[in-house]
Structure formats: structure tokens, C-alpha cells
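Many introductory courses stop at the sequence. We go one step further.
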Amino acid sequence: MGEEPFRGIYRLTLGDFRPDLTFILDLPAETGLERASARREGGERYEGMGLAFHQRLREGFLEIAAAEPERCQVIDAAADAGSVTERLLEALGKRLEAA
């Protein structure tokens, strides 16, 4: 299918809008699926789409981050929630100081 249909939908709905900062919480797809399975909250709408789908999704987000490093901040989300929160707050603080 490619990216262009998604870019067209984005342009149609949001025009030139781009957020100033986007956090991408990154972890291996296997780990994300394990966490989702352990939570058992909600349905399996996305979790049931399989490992290959989630690996492609992760790759897509990392490609966005590489293409727009001034906007995207990749946070390693493999640690516990408290550590991830600290990393997020640290990254946000640095961004606000630079502004």
C-alpha cells in the first residue's frame, strides 16, 4: 500500500499542522505484545494482528523519528514505568529549556 495514502489523509485532515514535539516510546515488538497480554485490558484489536505487523509499525515510527529529528524524541520504553517517566520528563525539560 505504501505511505502516500496515509500522507494524503493527513494532508486532507490536518493540512500543514505538525506538532512541535512528538515522543515515540520505543521497545521491541515482542516486549510490547508481552506487556499487552499481561495487562489483558480491553480487546485484542491490535494485539491480535501479529508480531510482523507490530515490527513494521515500530519500524515506521522509527523512520518518522529519523526523518524528523527536530520534532521526534525517541524514548527507550523497555524499562519500568517510573524510569520511562523520568526519561520523558528529562527530554521534555531539555526541550523547554531550548525553546
